[in-house]
Amino acid sequence: MVKLSKTEFIATLAPIAIRVRKEGSPLFPSVRLAQNLLETGGVIHPWYNLGGIKVGSGKPNGYWKGQYVRKGTWEVENGTRVDTTALFRAYDSIYDFYKDQDLLFQLARYERVRKSTTPEMQAEALRLCGYATDPQYGSKIVSLINANKLKRYDEEAARPDPVKPPTKPPASEPEPLPIPVRLNGELLAEGRLISGQTWVAARVVGEALQLKIGFANKAVTANGKSLPTLLFGNVGYVPIRELAAVHDKAKIVWSAADTSVDIKTTS
Predict the structure, then answer these.
(1) pLDDT digits (tens, 9 = 90+) for 23-44
(2) For residues 27 and 10, what is the distance between their CA atoms, to the nearest angstrom?
(3) Averaged pLDDT, 39-53
(4) How would residue 78 be classed by pLDDT, with cut points 50, 70 and 90?
(5) CATH code 1.10.530.10 region(s) in the chain
């Protein structure tokens, strides 16, 4: 579990929210990001469910593989808050969560969400369609949109991608291979295999290891040590072995069976 500052949380999610909007998502990025803040309090859990989607009667699909977690939650029943527990879907990545949520919004009950023409209308449509039982759900989302100036991401998503002149593809390595990264057996993040090394989001993995992560002179630092850094959007990635080496007990275990990495901090 990684608790980010509000700025870091938004910076991590915004590129993905914009991407799925460009791919046809009905949700405005501003509404999506505000909902994520409201539902998680700015925490990215290893199960990546940023919108409180319960297991329900849905069947596994290309984005949700059937995993779930049981956690505490609350509902409003007859005007009264009721604390309870429920089964929530667990995902392999933030992108998978967003895409599965978009499948949910294709249900007939969410027609008003799909047809909303402004973020304010869509936030209230989520409440009216029964996405949450909190009677203030829509107004809370609108308040978060305004407080964090999230409509700028709607504008960015609406801009057409620049047209690139056709060029002969340069000789280069293939696209980075996604690598599941676990911490003591529990899914933590998704790394990228580049030039034979697994690179991971420094802040997500580093803070899970209780390291102090910073950024200086265009490089990530862990407990003050500068590490090789690659930027993907606004997220700094570092080699997992070099990040783990800063921790006095962390060991890296590679699994060829499922092409994954496990960080072991316990014997």
Answers:
(1) 999 999 999 999 999 999 999 9
(2) 16
(3) 92
(4) low
(5) 2-158
* pLDDT, tens only, 183-196: 998 899 999 988 88
| Residue 217: per-residue pLDDT | 75
The encoded tokens of residue 195 equal 């030039």
Cβ-contact 230, 239 below 8 angstroms: no
Give the chain as a 3 state SS string.
Answer: CEECCHHHHHHHHHHHHHHHHHCCCCCCHHHHHHHHHHHHCCEECCCCCCCCCECCCCCCCCCCCCCEEEEEEEEEECCEEEEEEEEEECCCCHHHHHHHHHHHCCCHHHHHHHHCCCHHHHHHHHHHCCCCCCCCHHHHHHHHHHHCCCHHHHHHHHCCCCCCCCCCCCCCCCCCEEEEEEECCEEEEEEEEECCEEEEEHHHHHHHCCCCEEEECCEEEECCEECCCEEECCEEEEEHHHHHHHCCCCEEEEECCCCEEEEECCC
Look up the CATH number of domain 2-158: 1.10.530.10
User: Is the Cβ–Cβ distance between 239 and 198 less than 8 Å?
Assistant: yes
Beta-sheet pairing, 251-255 with 80-89: unpaired
Distance CA 30, CA 116 (A): 13
* Beta carbons within 8 Å of 82's beta carbon, 6+ residues apart: 74, 75, 76
